[in-house]
Amino acid sequence: MTFEHYLALFIAMFLVAVIPGPAVFAITSASVASGYKRGISMTLGLLLADYVFILLAISGLAVVAEVLGSAFVIIKYLCAAYLIWMGISLLLSKPDTTPTDTATHSTHSAILSGFLLTLSNPKAIVFYVALFPTFVAIESMTYVDILGIMVCATLAFGSVNLGYVYLGGQARKLISTPRRLTLLNRCAGSVLAASGVTVAMR
């Protein structure tokens, strides 16, 4: 792949990432409710799923998606249920003005939720099945090309998602009283639950 190929792929990935969807709403709400660390952990999970999609696309994602169609449906509903559960947890949570990482909001659970979000995201599936092959010559991929594609994904998707994490974290910093934080948690919980419903209905 040439520099022009990488640049075109990066721009396409960046534009796809900027478009708000369940993943964007989830990581922003998680950052608002629990601080930067949880949002960053969810972003890591999102990227790990993108790496899986890249490897599947190179080995024939369309075939894999057809064979594992039921598995993708199960993942979608698991992700939806997890988002709804997180939303309800926030709605019922007591205000805490300092970000914490409890068992409920552990790093591992944040990474897993981010991973499942991307795997169940129709936008990601459409991109890697329909658009991805137009930017890369899959039949002549080398290990260097694969590494370069993953770097593009990291820079494009990672930078955009971390930007949303930063905005969510900054919003949390502006909320210094328990009353305001309670309202913020309810808003974030509602967004997460709504994102879960959206994922389930797609």
TrEMBL record:
Q: Where are the transmembrane segments?
A: 6-32, 44-65, 71-92, 112-131, 143-167
- Cellular localisation: Cell membrane
One Pfam family from the UniProt entry?
A: LysE
Does this UniProt record's set of keywords contain Cell membrane? yes
Q: Report the GO terms under cellular component.
A: plasma membrane
Q: Does the keyword Cytoplasm apply?
A: no
Q: Which keywords, in A-to-Z order, does the entry hold?
A: Cell membrane, Membrane, Transmembrane, Transmembrane helix
Against PANTHER family, the record matches this protein to: ARGININE EXPORTER PROTEIN ARGO, ARGININE EXPORTER PROTEIN ARGO-RELATED
Please identify the protein, giving its name as recorded: LysE family translocator
Organism lineage reads as: Bacteria, Pseudomonadati, Pseudomonadota, Gammaproteobacteria, Alteromonadales
